[in-house]
């Protein structure tokens, strides 16, 4: 994602202008602990002598939207976590996950991408499962740290599309992650999930269905999810969900997809 934006910046800017934009971006003091690489932004600056000198330069995206209005960037999520506007936060563990965990008698190595407050990650770790919770928003990671406290799992601040774990996972838990991704990023979702899982591993969790064009949350049509995952997975479970939060009510289903080969 970030790499694609970087290439876009290279193409659109030319010569010294491009170099200046990319250099300023690389030196931006806003780079967080998760790192912000190649986002294709330019920095707007007031003309010399105008504007308060202490005013922070505001990054403006190539498409004209500020970074904190672009859900493909951590800034979007940082803003919402920092302002406490997190209507997806369940504050606990959904019933379908608890039931699924009870059905498993092993202790899988689990990845929770886009973990947010990480309630489920903490709960699964307390069951003795080996859990890695991952998020690219520094504010989300701070919230997760608060939820998790001193826990036995691993909390990673990284972009899902760049993350390179030492070992593949047995299980990836999905909740409100696919629907947080702008649709232009969906094409890479199935391939990444497949690559992060060991053979025979499973992608399990909640998928948000619908056809509303705007998001987040970006709902998906059933046939579109099938098209995303069928090349790499076969669906094993598909159930309605009864304890959805209002923001997802009536639109989410619990599904388990088994990794092919
Ligand atoms: C709607 S929130 C859901 C959080 C959590 N899964 C939950 O159910 O409460 C989406 C989360 O995904 C994270 N996220 C979005 N894109 C990401 C990416 N490319 N890599 C890692 N995290 C990402 C956001 O920072 C945010 O914390």
UniProtKB/TrEMBL annotation:
GO terms for molecular function: S-adenosylmethionine-dependent methyltransferase activity. CDD domains: AdoMet_MTases. It comes from the Bacteria. The keyword Metal-binding does not apply. One of its GO terms (biological process) is methylation. Pfam families: TPMT (PF05724). PANTHER family: CYSTEINE SULFINATE DESULFINASE_CYSTEINE DESULFURASE AND RELATED ENZYMES, PTHR32183. This is Methyltransferase domain-containing protein. It comes from Azospira restricta. The lineage of its organism: Bacteria, Pseudomonadati, Pseudomonadota, Betaproteobacteria, Rhodocyclales.
């Amino acid at each position: 994602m970030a790499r694609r934006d970087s290439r876009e910046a290279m193409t659109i800017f030319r010569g010294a202008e491009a170099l200046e934009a990319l250099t300023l971006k690389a030196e931006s003091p806003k780079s967080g602990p998760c790192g912000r690489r190649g986002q294709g932004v330019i920095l707007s600056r007031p003309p010399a002598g105008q504007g308060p000198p202490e005013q922070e330069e505001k990054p403006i995206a190539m498409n004209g939207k500020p970074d904190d209005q672009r859900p493909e960037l951590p800034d979007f999520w940082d803003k919402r976590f920092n302002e406490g506007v997190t209507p997806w936060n369940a504050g606990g563990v959904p019933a379908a996950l608890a039931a699924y965990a009870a059905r498993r008698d092993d202790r899988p190595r689990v990845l929770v991408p886009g973990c947010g407050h990480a309630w489920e990650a903490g709960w699964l770790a307390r069951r003795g499962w080996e859990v890695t919770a991952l998020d690219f928003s520094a504010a989300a990671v701070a919230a997760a740290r608060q939820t998790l406290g001193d826990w036995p799992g691993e909390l990673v601040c990284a972009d899902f599309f760049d993350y390179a774990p030492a070992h593949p996972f047995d299980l990836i838990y999905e909740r409100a992650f696919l629907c947080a991704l702008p649709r232009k990023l969906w094409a890479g979702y199935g391939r990444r999930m497949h690559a992060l899982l060991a053979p025979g591993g499973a992608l399990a969790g909640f998928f948000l269905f619908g056809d509303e064009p705007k998001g987040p949350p970006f709902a998906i049509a059933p046939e579109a999810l099938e098209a995303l995952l069928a090349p790499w997975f076969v669906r094993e479970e598909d159930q309605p969900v009864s304890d959805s939060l209002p923001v997802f009510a009536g639109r989410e289903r619990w599904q388990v997809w088994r990794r092919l080969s």
